[in-house]
Amino acid sequence: MSDFVSVIWTTGDIITEAKMDNMVSNDTAEDAHPSLRLTEIAEPATPAANELALYAKDKSAVSALFFKGDDGIEHELSGEAAIEFIIDGGGTAITTGEKGHIEVPFNCIVNGWTAVADQSGSIVVDVWKDTYANFPPTVDDTIAGTEKPTLSTAQKNQDLSLTTWATALTKGDIIAFNVDSIDTCTRVVVSLRVTKI
């Protein structure tokens, strides 16, 4: 079994080849500072085989974190995600009422919603949220305000600038989807756009 050695990095240290050469197999590099700070750079060249470049660069006047693999493709390490729920009438028109639940997998903020259907129609979906301990959520737990996911004689719609939602979701919360009204649609997907926090 190999010895385990830690190399301590302190604020202002520069990662040099010499310092890295002092590390041996199974060593770890520990930052005495509570965070890793990256300075924005332009997109780097494609890394060599089996290597990965991690870097910060400007994205609309905000620093964002990216990585590029040896395939040369740049990827943003974004905190954006979607929580999706499918309402399916099984080939017939959807009915009103509560259609099911989802557990929130991470702390996040809801930024908007998108609704798409199998055909042009109308639907209003309320979104309820409560803690696991208080399951099940009820209409008293609505978080959608006056901006419920809605189709009005349409096959798609979205609202990406919510102003009346209670947008904070906590890992482990339970979300319920309730169809308030419906016409024609037999399958609708409601997607909540969120940012992980």
Give the topology, please.
Layout: E1 6-9, H1 17-21, E2 28-31, E3 52-59, E4 62-69, E5 74-76, E6 80-88, E7 97-103, E8 108-130, E9 150-159, E10 168-169, E11 174-183, E12 187-196
Parallel strand pairs: 1-2
Antiparallel strand pairs: 3-4, 4-5, 6-12, 7-11, 8-9, 8-10, 8-11, 8-12
What does this structure look like?
With 197 residues, the chain is mainly beta. The protein has two domains: 6-76, no CATH class; 80-196, Jelly Rolls, CATH 2.60.120. The chain is 3% helix and 50% strand. The protein is elongated and about 65 Å long. It starts with 5 loop residues before the first strand and ends with a strand.
Whole-number count of domains:
2
What general form does the structure show? elongated
What is the CATH T-level topology of the largest domain? Jelly Rolls
CATH class of the largest domain: Mainly Beta
Brief overview:
With 197 residues, the chain is mostly beta strands. Strands 6, 7, 8, 9, 10, 11 and 12 form a seven-stranded antiparallel beta sheet that branches. Strands 3-4-5 form a three-stranded antiparallel beta sheet, with no helix packed on it. A two-stranded parallel sheet has the order 1-2.
Entry keywords:
197 residues, mainly beta, Jelly Rolls, 2 domains, seven-stranded antiparallel β-sheet, three-stranded antiparallel β-sheet, 1 helix, 12 strands, 50% strand, elongated
